[in-house]
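User: I'm new to structure prediction. If I give you an amino acid sequence, what do you actually give back? Let's try with this one:
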Amino acid sequence: MCSDMDRWEEKYRQAEPDSVGDADATLRSLARWFDGAGQALDLACGAGANLQWLHRQGYRVTGMDRSLEALKLACRQPDGRQFRLIAADLETTELPHQCYAAIIVVHYLDRTLFPAIVRALKPGGRLFYKTFNKNLLQQRPGFNPDFVLEIGELQRSFGELKPRVIAEPDTGNPVNSWVVMEQPETPAAGKDRA
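Assistant: Good question. You get back a string of structure tokens that encode the predicted 3D arrangement of the chain. For your 194 residues, that looks like this:
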């Protein structure tokens, strides 16, 4: 029996380098929120389509993924040699504090990472987080419910960040929820930012 990781490795091993596709359409539509100044992190970056977009926005980009096969594809992106790519188990990797002007997460859900994501954003840094919500279970009842959000969960989970754009659920695609949130310039009084 194949593990989940084995299935991802095989998926990326079978992919053609030029079949990576475009960056997430929602992310592209939100370009005005991502000005390209500073460092950006794409968690669970896969084959690097969102990294390519972030790099072209002007960011210095870091991509993290557990799949070595995905990272090999990310290297083959047109600007892939400019990417900093890290093979890491996201469930155990420490993120640097106040390092990133932008963090992107698309279709990956590990709730234990939420506090680390908040800490990794610089003051004024922006988070784009998009993943499946419980509406997906109506279409795909066999999908693991641990990997879908409750409606409104992103905004509640990142409550110490300032909401900029919220779609929980996305009206155009109700199986997805997404947010753009911003790290306040100064931490809220009484909140431990360490």
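You can read the tokens as a compact description of the fold. Here is one thing that stands out. The chain has seven helices and seven strands.
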